[in-house]
Amino acid sequence: MTLTTHHASVNDTDIAYWHERSERATKVLVCVHGWPETKRIFSRVVQPFCDAGFDVVVPDLRGFGESGLAPDGFYDVVSHARDIEALVFDHLGYQSVVLVGGDLGGPVIQEMALRNPSRVERMVLFNSPLPMDKERMAGMRTRPPIEVMDYFIRQGTDADALVSELDSEDKRADYIAAFYSTRLWAHPGAFNTEDIAWHVEPFRDAQKLRASFTNYESAFDATKRSEKPLYGRNTVTPTLILFGTSDHVIYPDFDLMAATVFDIHDGPIRIENCGHFVPWEAAEEFIFRTVGFCRK
């Protein structure tokens, strides 16, 4: 399937997106990528979702992939959520949606669900940051090993210097490629050399790479946030929880933690031999679980 990229001016920002329609669609799936990803991470699942009877919308977040840089300079969770709300509800005219996301896309769809409880029918969440609840998560492993968090701290507190060090396209590509290979986010062998090159290609651009670090800065610096996110427990949105268990960067007990955040949930479903990038690494199971959940 050849996916056509469309563009919309959303909140003064050029947002690129795929939009595939099914003649028998009764629901729309809005798939939101994370970091270091673009809409390409969902490329294996778009056609099967359409074949199963869903419209599918897959945007590049502002500053990522084929989308433009944001004139206001914000790349935080709320800014991303607002963009997608404007794209799917205002520009495309959908009245309600099913949201799908992991990594950065996870907090974005969680924010959208809390902001629009009557318009978000369901969520499918995988390998994503979660709001912390010390009481409900007592005894769970809520932190990944500190040694895998070096990127988070560097990108969040020293982004300009890091980008200065990555002063060529090849250096930027090599930096991002490690997250698909040696840093053990993905299950070993999930991405071959050609796969990695394709996913890494959008980050060869220095401005795009720098923009992608800004959300990490927002974790340390409130001035990088357009507004405070709602980010918290969700008591109303039915949520399918999927967990690629080979992921070394997310919480070891992500599945158990997520079950405390979403009161109405299916799963958690643990997917073995799969890491951080679930729609790519375990596309068939991802499709099967998502379609089954949406048809309940």
Automatic annotation (TrEMBL):
Pfam annotation, one family: Abhydrolase_1
One Gene Ontology term of the molecular function aspect: catalytic activity
Coiled-coil region list: none
SUPFAM superfamilies linked: alpha/beta-Hydrolases
Designated name of the protein: Unannotated protein
Protein's organism: freshwater metagenome
GO CC, any one term: membrane
Domain AB hydrolase-1, first and last residues per copy: 28-282
PANTHER family: HYDROLASE, PUTATIVE (AFU_ORTHOLOGUE AFUA_2G14860)-RELATED, MONOACYLGLYCEROL LIPASE
